[in-house]
């Protein structure tokens, strides 16, 4: 087989019907893994495909398989086979064009970057949620002004999540306290959402059931409008300002 | 192999992501993640592997189909907002070094999310030392790894050895095409029960259901 002596830069083998390598050209020895049978050159996952096609002993044109290089790396290649009458097969292994590999590597790196970004966003989101939670926890401090009166200034806008959290925290705290009157000060409250008002109503119900006198102070005109839109059945005392509320309550306590 | 999966495979191979999604909607009667992943997408991707073995498609076609499959999963997960909240158990998922198959991992991540787990999906081909650093820093309850190809076995064994010893003593789950053929009793630092083989997503789903109900013998939850 004279082709084996040429310096053609394509790995070429001659194999028998047992798929054993009879001869290999210099390029084959140099570029691909050292081998006893042609299957030794072929990567494990590609072997079933190669065997299935080789054992038909028919010509094979461009069978895509992964082969093993002399350094052990995996290389995508096309396999060509022609069988002579003496059951000798000539095998050519031609490495695939790198273009596909390049695009595929770019895709992988883009995907990795997307995943990393996704990850960073997720972490930022979790941080933000924690901060929000912390913020809500701090937005309704329970301050005992006298033995009988506690002041709860509420900060920021009110939505459902926030009123629920405030309600849970406040009812617990108030229950443990000796005071009789609670002043909820709305001076520092921004927008109250409908869902926030509903949560507020249930909070006030709970506080009344626990036996507290509840005073609402410092409502803005905008709050009053929102409050009025709701059918509020509870008996709550409203005071214009925190100052007014304190003066009145203290006067009752110390006439 | 159902006709639905074959049709889906052909749509994936032709890069028709919208038609593939439309096809999925006609087959899925409800928003059922397991049916989509186990009965439609996985058989479709397996069928695509077979087509390559028959030399009917190339690796390039496979890559395109994988990208479309990936898109379909992301799209489905984005639209199903039925994620439970509150279970703050942590899971870290990745493919071992050299392993580029990742669709299964992505599907598994979604199943964990369905159960309200906090999920860190680190993608395929993650060097062990990075996985180890992440595991020690974040201390997940579960580390899930996958390997598709038989010659990743030594890497997988080494990973089990190293990661089972990390700070949180996590339960290690092994998935992927190799999973049903492997045993890791010796590699687990805290004994054989620390490593669990998951052959498919339904098994994972069952395991998570048990874990949630507090039944079973899973050491991370005992």
Brief summary:
The complex is a heterodimer of chains A (255) and B (222). Chain A is an alpha/beta fold. Chain A has 7 helices and 10 strands.
Main traits of this protein?
heterodimer, A: alpha/beta, Beta-Lactamase, Transcription Regulator spoIIAA, five-stranded antiparallel beta sheet, five-stranded mixed beta sheet, 7 helices, B: 222 residues, alpha/beta, Methyltransferase, Methionine Synthase (B12-binding Domains), Chain A, domain 1, Rossmann fold, five-stranded parallel beta sheet, 8 helices, 50% helix, globular
Structural overview:
The complex is a heterodimer of chains A (255) and B (222). Chain A is of the alpha/beta class. Chain A has 7 helices and 10 strands. Chain A folds into 2 domains: 2-97, 2-Layer Sandwich (Beta-Lactamase); 138-253, STAS domain (Transcription Regulator spoIIAA, 2-Layer Sandwich), CATH 3.30.750.24. Chain A has helices at 26-31, 47-54, 98-138, 160-175, 194-209, 221-229, 242-253; strands at 12-15, 21-24, 60-68, 74-83, 89-95, 143-144, 149-153, 181-185, 213-217, 237-239. Chain A is rod-shaped and about 120 Å long. In chain A, 22% of the residues are buried. The model of chain A has no long low-confidence stretch (mean pLDDT 86). With 222 residues, chain B is of the alpha/beta class. Chain B folds into 2 domains: 3-79, Methionine synthase domain (Methyltransferase, Methionine Synthase (B12-binding Domains), Chain A, domain 1, Orthogonal Bundle); 90-221, Rossmann fold (3-Layer(aba) Sandwich), CATH 3.40.50. Chain B has 8 helices and 5 strands, in the order ααααβαβαβαββα. In chain B, strands 2-1-3-4-5 form a 5-stranded parallel sheet, sandwiched between helices. In chain B, helix 1 packs across helix 3 (33-53) and helix 3 (33-53) packs antiparallel against helix 4 (59-79). Chain B is globular. The mean pLDDT of chain B is 88. Chain A binds chain B through residues 44-45, 48-49, 52-53, 62-64, 76, 96, 100, 104, 107-108, 111-112, 115, 119, and chain B through 52-53, 55, 58-60, 63, 67, 70, 100, 120-123, 149-151.
């Amino acid at each position: 087989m004279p082709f084996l002596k040429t310096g053609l830069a394509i790995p070429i083998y001659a194999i028998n019907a047992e798929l054993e390598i009879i001869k290999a050209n210099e390029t084959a020895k140099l570029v691909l893994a050292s081998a006893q049978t042609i299957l030794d050159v072929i990567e494990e996952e590609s072997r079933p495909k190669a065997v299935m096609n080789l054992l038909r002993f028919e010509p094979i044109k461009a069978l895509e398989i992964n082969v093993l290089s002399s350094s052990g790396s995996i290389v995508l290649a096309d396999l060509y086979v022609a069988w002579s009458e003496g059951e000798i097969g000539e095998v050519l292994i031609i490495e695939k064009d790198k273009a596909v590999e390049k695009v595929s590597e770019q895709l992988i790196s883009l995907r990795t970057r997307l995943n990393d970004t996704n990850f960073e966003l997720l972490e930022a989101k979790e941080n933000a949620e924690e901060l929000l939670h912390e913020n809500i926890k701090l937005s309704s401090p329970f301050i005992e002004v006298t033995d009988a009166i506690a002041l709860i200034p509420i900060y920021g806008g009110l939505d459902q999540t926030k009123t629920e959290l405030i309600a849970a925290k406040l009812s617990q705290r108030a229950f443990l306290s000796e005071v009789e009157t609670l002043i909820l000060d709305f001076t520092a409250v921004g927008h109250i959402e409908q869902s926030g008002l509903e949560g507020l109503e249930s909070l006030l119900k709970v506080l009344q059931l626990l036996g507290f006198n509840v005073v609402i102070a410092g409502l803005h005109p905008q709050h009053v409008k929102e409050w009025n839109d709701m059918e509020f059945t509870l008996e709550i005392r409203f005071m214009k300002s925190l100052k007014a509320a304190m003066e009145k309550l203290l006067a009752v306590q110390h006439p | 192999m159902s006709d639905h999966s074959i049709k889906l495979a052909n749509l994936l191979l032709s890069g028709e992501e919208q038609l593939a999604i439309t096809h999925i909607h006609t087959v899925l009667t409800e928003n059922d993640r397991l049916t989509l992943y186990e009965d439609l997408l996985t058989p479709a991707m397996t069928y695509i592997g077979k087509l390559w073995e028959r030399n009917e498609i190339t690796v390039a076609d496979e890559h395109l189909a994988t990208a479309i499959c990936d898109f379909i999963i992301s799209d489905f997960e984005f639209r199903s907002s039925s994620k439970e909240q509150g279970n703050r158990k942590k899971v870290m998922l990745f493919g071992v070094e050299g392993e580029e198959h990742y669709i299964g991992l992505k599907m598994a991540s979604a199943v964990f999310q369905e159960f309200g787990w906090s999920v860190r999906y680190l993608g395929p081909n993650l060097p062990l030392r990075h996985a180890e650093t992440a595991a020690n820093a974040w201390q997940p309850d579960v580390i899930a790894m996958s390997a598709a190809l038989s010659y990743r076995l030594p890497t997988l064994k080494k990973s089990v050895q190293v990661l089972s010893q990390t700070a949180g003593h996590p339960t290690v789950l092994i998935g992927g095409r190799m999973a049903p053929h492997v045993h890791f009793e010796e590699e687990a630092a805290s004994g054989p029960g620390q490593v669990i083989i998951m052959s498919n997503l339904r098994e994972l789903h069952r395991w998570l259901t048990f874990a949630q109900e507090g039944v079973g013998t899973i050491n991370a939850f005992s």
